[in-house]
Specification:
Elements: H1 8-17, E1 20-25, E2 28-33, H2 42-58
Antiparallel strand pairs: 1-2
Amino acid sequence: MTTRTFNPIETLLLVWASGCVLTRTGDTLHIETERGKGAIPPELVDHLKVNKQALLAVMPEHDKPQATELPRGGH
């Protein structure tokens, strides 16, 4: 049985449905699962590979979080 290839929107929906978070840094996609959810489904990895360039074109750049200095004093 052959599985059809998902388009980029379907791939993003599959990421969401799988409980994963997809981010981008430069030309690299990062996928994370929720704690305790297990491994990323192999089918999802395949769809991400096929749609990587299209996803990079529409996803915003993920900046590294910067530490925010809290004001001193007060509670």
